[in-house]
Amino acid sequence: MKKIAVLTSGGDAPGMNAAIRAVVRTGLDKKLTVMGIQRGFSGLINGEIFEMDRRSVADIIQRGGTVLRTARSEEFKTEAGQKKGAAILNAFGIDGLVVIGGDGSFHGARALSKYGINTVGLPGTIDNDLAYTDYTIGFDTAVNTVLDAINKLRDTSSSHERVSVVEVMGRNCGDIALYAGLAGGAESIIVPEKGYDINELCRTILEGKLRGKRHNLVIVAEGVGGANDIAKKVEEVTGIGARATILGHIQRGGSPTSNDRILASRLGYRAVELLMEGKSSKVVGVKGGNVIDVDIDKALAMERKFDEKLYNIAIALSY
Ligand code: F6P
């Protein structure tokens, strides 16, 4: 292994820069040549490849987004696009590739490995929706961004004695809603893994009011969606004013938390180690606090388990 490359793909996530920095500096520390690929697989196909040195990743550990930029490439989903990507990597003499991204990006990495490119995937997504790892890079920052919003919404919800329905990201995964809801003391957490009943929600809200609650926070994961409709229905049924807030892409930005920077640094380091050990088609992650690696096929086939226990704790503490 002499020359490796790194790219970021799919939705950006805070901590991706810390991961790029870790890959580049570990590679250089181990006397490898490290190339950066811009705009994910789309940039790969276009040959947007340049050499990186220690200074190329200076002053980025604290920055959200990705200095390599990112994209979702339709062309790379095709066999022709993947072959083109592998040919470009060969033309540049790149022996190993680190792909930082989520589920879709890992499918891309797997495709390249089928054409003989050694690949290792790093989980970079705010969604925390990858089954093989306890946490993905960016999730902790996104949860804290939501938490900051919830704290503010609680103030106005208390002052007006209204219900605040907050819709958060996560694609089909309810983790951002669950973790932010628990940390923010939300009254109700609605996630796709559990579903919900509008009458039960309204009853919970009314019972809370009778017990003297002035605010009421309902966190809805985007996998369920419909925050505006939920707020409308709640107001109609309970007679209590309700407002919806859809947090949107604010959750994807911002300076990464220490947890995300440390996770990114540990996983980036391990990814390069794996490539140097001659491993391929692997993804790295964290389980029970330890850095692990898993075969990409196995990781992609694993079904994510919702944390029922954490959900039950959040409900038990909510009223
Ligand atoms: O995967 C990250 C994520 O922010 C999801 O939570 C959300 O469903 C999606 O990306 C939004 O995608 P886009 O950036 O295309 O709006």
From TrEMBL:
Class of enzymatic activity (EC top level): transferase
The record's listing under Pfam families reads: PFK
Q: Which residues bind substrate?
A: T125, I126, D127, R162, M169, G170, R171, E222, R243, H249, I250, Q251, R252
Q: What is its EC number?
A: 2.7.1.11
**In which pathway does this enzyme or protein participate?**
Carbohydrate degradation; glycolysis; D-glyceraldehyde 3-phosphate and glycerone phosphate from D-glucose: step 3/4
Question: GO MF annotations for this entry?
Answer: 6-phosphofructokinase activity; AMP binding; ATP binding; fructose-6-phosphate binding; identical protein binding; metal ion binding; monosaccharide binding
Q: Keyword Phosphoprotein on this protein?
A: no
One CC-aspect GO term: 6-phosphofructokinase complex
Activity modulation notes: Allosterically activated by ADP and other diphosphonucleosides, and allosterically inhibited by phosphoenolpyruvate.
Q: What does this protein do?
A: Catalyzes the phosphorylation of D-fructose 6-phosphate to fructose 1,6-bisphosphate by ATP, the first committing step of glycolysis.
| Name this protein carries in UniProt | ATP-dependent 6-phosphofructokinase
Q: Which organism is it from?
A: Clostridium liquoris
Per UniProt, what is the name of the gene that codes for the protein in this document?
pfkA
